[in-house]
Known about the structure:
This protein is of the alpha+beta class. The protein is built from three helices and three strands. It is globular, with a radius of gyration of 13 Å. Residues 9-58 form the DUF2007 domain. It comes from Flavobacterium magnum.
Amino acid sequence: MALIRIFSGGAILALRLKEMLESEGVRVVIKDDIQSAIWGGYGTSDLAVELYIHESDYGFVADSIDEFNNSLGHE
């Protein structure tokens, strides 16, 4: 089963979206390059958190993701 990236951005927004999707019963995978950089001792950009969900779950939460993006001014 393939994972698809649904978000790339700051940690606070990523956590907000993650909690929203998990409340709808969708499991979210986080790739956090910010924490990896801290542990590794080197810098990174502030847009280094990515969220992934299973491709098969996308249809269940597509409207929620669109609503989230629209609330941020993204299309």
